[in-house]
Amino acid sequence: MKLKLKQFIYIIVIAVFILITVFPIFWALVSSLRSDEEIFRYAMPFSWRTFVPDKLTFQSYINVFVEKHFGKVLFNTIFVGVATIVTGIIVNAVAGFIFAKYTFRFKRLLFFLVVLSFMVPFEAVSIPLYKMITVLKWENTYIALILPTVANGLVIFLFKQFFEEIPNSLMESATVEGAGMFTIFTKIVIPNSIPVIQKAKELLRDLQNKVYDVAYQTGFNDARYFSQVFRKETGLTPTQYREKFCLDSQF
């Protein structure tokens, strides 16, 4: 009897937490199907009408996806994120595998440079990186957001250390069975590297967020970019606008 009572109390507590978690999401979903005036009309006092719209409207979704072009923003975020993580994992995993299982000239020197690269904070290279992108004329392109985050010294280091723990005898056995290096890498090494791949995804995503911050700051602080946006919105350059309306302030 005591066990059933404890289970009942446990279920009640979990149900309350679920209700608290789901309630704001459900209210936001219902409110998105209402007009702006109706959203707050039944918010207080709280009643059943709070969750039942008088008239369904999809104007909010039209404003977001058609007028504000949120679909483009969503696509850019998903595309850049997926492309960065997939490309970054491939490049860094291959580099880590080469450092772990191959012997070649200047291997230690190159790996030292890789280790040295992730000791330098991203903020220290953000301005030179932006200047390089400007010289290459990659402003406002996907490649400017993806390419700087593909190769990451810390991720290469993690892959290299992890791959060193994979026994060479396992690879040699696959070679005896006729498997090539590409097959060994894709069929044996990568499937056994899921933990380090998960960590690599987190590191690449964090670096991608830093690149987003740089892109945002430089995009809105760059005078040329501001002039382009200003001219698109007004049909005049900032100088022409100031002269036409006799403004003393400068843009």
Observed structural traits:
single chain; 251 residues
SSE succession = HHHHHHHHHHHHH
In which range does the helix fraction lie? over 70%
Q: State the total count of DSSP E strands.
A: 0
Distance between the termini: 76 Å
Looking at the structure, what is the overall shape?
A: flat
The major β-sheet equals: none
Radius of gyration: 28 Å
Total helices: the number is 13
pLDDT average, as an integer? 79
Main structural class: mainly alpha
Task: Classify the beta-strand content into a percent band.
Answer: under 5%
Query: pLDDT under 50 segments (min length 5)?
Result: 247-251
What does this molecule look like?
- This protein has 251 residues and is an all-alpha fold.
- Helices cover 72% and strands 0% of the residues.
- Helix 5 crosses helix 8 and helix 8 (153-163) runs antiparallel to helix 11 (194-221).
- It is flat, with a radius of gyration of 28 Å.
- The relative contact order is 0.07.
Which helices and strands occur, and which strands form pairs?
Layout: H1 2-31, H2 36-39, H3 59-67, H4 70-101, H5 107-117, H6 122-135, H7 142-146, H8 153-163, H9 168-176, H10 181-189, H11 194-221, H12 223-234, H13 238-244
